[in-house]
Amino acid sequence: MKIASFEDFRVGVVDGDTVYDMTATLPAFLAQLPRQRVNWLIANWATMAAPFADYLKTGEARPLAGLRLLPPNPAPQHVFAAPANYQKHIGELGTRTVTQGGRSAREQGFFLKAPGSLVGAGNAILLPRGSTRRFDHESELAVVIGRAARNVPREKAMEYVFGYSCLIDATMRIEKGVAEEERSMRKSFETFTPMGPYIVTADEVPDPQALQNRLWVNGEIRQQANTGEMIVGVAELIELVSSVLPLEPGDVIASGTPEGVGPFAPGDTVKIEIQSVGSMTLDVRECAMRAPRAY
Ligand code: MN
Questions:
Q1: How far is CA 17 from the centre of its chain?
Q2: 170 CA from centroid of ligand 1 (Å)
Q3: Which of 53, 79, 181, 184 is the most buried (most CB within 10 A)?
Q4: Which class is 79-286 in CATH?
């Protein structure tokens, strides 16, 4: 099943070119907390899977093309991200990387992206106005957590996965000795975490370590790898994060980028596609407003 969030935080099931709006099947109290609808849905999937599977009968059909897609979970409590998780990516950024000595995600652990940086397939990536810095795309498989997870061994970790989505980890690069802001800040500008176009439930992705992960800029392929090349796989990532703190239903883990990371600029169009998971295209633009400090 493909679950999307759209317009004013409505929730629906995507089938081909149609979204079946299922918002009416959710408890009325969620109208007061519309951003929380998907978190609630995932946490209550044991009872909601059946009514959602009935979407053809109970959903209100709307053409997908006319809807503004939001991040499929608009408000995860956490967005974790793996650095240095594909061997060929390690080292390709030269002095622009904060990774030292070839260390992978296994040694570095995870970092955080602010959930407020999420944006859906229906929006653009907005770069700081007037910036001369380098901004990069990172094409990543997003893992959406299905239930509370603490100290989960990797052998049991896949039981905690709700589904998958495409995620672009947009990044402002450091300039050694000139500008070396913290990683979480450089990756958390508003719109720097495009996610979507929907969450594909785990039952439709039998092996998340065997998916083509590709990204294009202006139609030219920049990144192309298989998720089987990850150093720390999905199960071990869940073991890693849950060894530090509890994962909550709806939480997102960005599983790291393969090689081919490169810059984009205002006017560009970026497309990400992950096999069995989906595809989305976003424009890159400048922010309308200039920040009170330079980036
Ligand atoms: Mn990344």
A1: 22
A2: 8
A3: 79
A4: alpha beta
